[in-house]
Model the fold of this input.
Amino acid sequence: MQTTRHIFQIANDFKKRILTFAVIHRFLKSLITRYTYKAFGLIIDSEIECPELIPATGNPDISISLGNIPKSLNSPLFSGVRFQTSGKEFLLSVDGIARYYVKNGNSITIEKAINANLSDVRLFLLGSAIGAIIHQRGLIPFHGSSVKIGNEAIILSGLSGAGKSTLAVAFKQKGYQLLSDDISVISFNADGSPLTNPGFPYMKLWSDSILKLGDNPSNYSKIRGEIGKHRFPIKNSFWDKPLPLGKIFIISTSNLGDSKIEPIKGIEKFSMLKTHTYRFNFVVGAEMQTKHFNSFELLSKNVAVYRLIRPSGKFPFDELIDLVLGNNG
Done:
């Protein structure tokens, strides 16, 4: 009898300790400052401060937290050099910076390296990690910069070095407003018409791009010490509301010396939409692939796509802007 009472006493003490730990955990958690932002049409609740993003209020679509994450995924459908993905789960590892675990289109957990700079952690968070979560949500993260022209948005895309960000800033210098740089997130209305969702009010520009635009790179902080890209703020020229997507322009270069524009149609158009989707290799599994290809079909039906050709080694801003505006009526 004495032994039974003793066992019950131990059990009750253990239960009290668990409840005490739970209360302490909730209390400590309540002390952690959370930040609320908006980007790409989503409300983001974050444990880490992201000065690049716009503060907001509302119920979060995405939660960003610090914590321990799996070393690897159990059953990845695809593995790259630095990432694994199974569709609903995505794991990114950046040596010396952080590891990112993206799940179910609504959460990102970050395991930060001990001596990592938070600005470097945010760089990959707002790039590949956010790209993965956008794919998980069934949206299209198009690789390009968005410009407001009239009541619509256009997207300037192209391969790395084509000049999509540079041309977007050239539009800015002529008084146009920008919605995003590098990643332009496309969603769809109930009728299938596409929308471009604003990102955040800064761009990443190479030093030579800033020089071509008549500015001095030393006026802008570097994104990472060893990279020649600079953080270029556009707060005064930023449009923060979704806009109908009008047209997409794929920038390419030519040795023939002339700037020109030509429509892209048929199978090539569909292929171009896929090619210029940001981190398309993150799209795996039948369910995710089907949803994305249905979105490409909708986009292909509703948006005109053009090839915008500029001379190699030159960037005739006025000519290119006139070509874009001439095909945006």
User: Anything to note?
Assistant: The chain is about 30% helix and 30% strand. The radius of gyration is 23 Å. The chain has two domains: 35-136, 140-326.
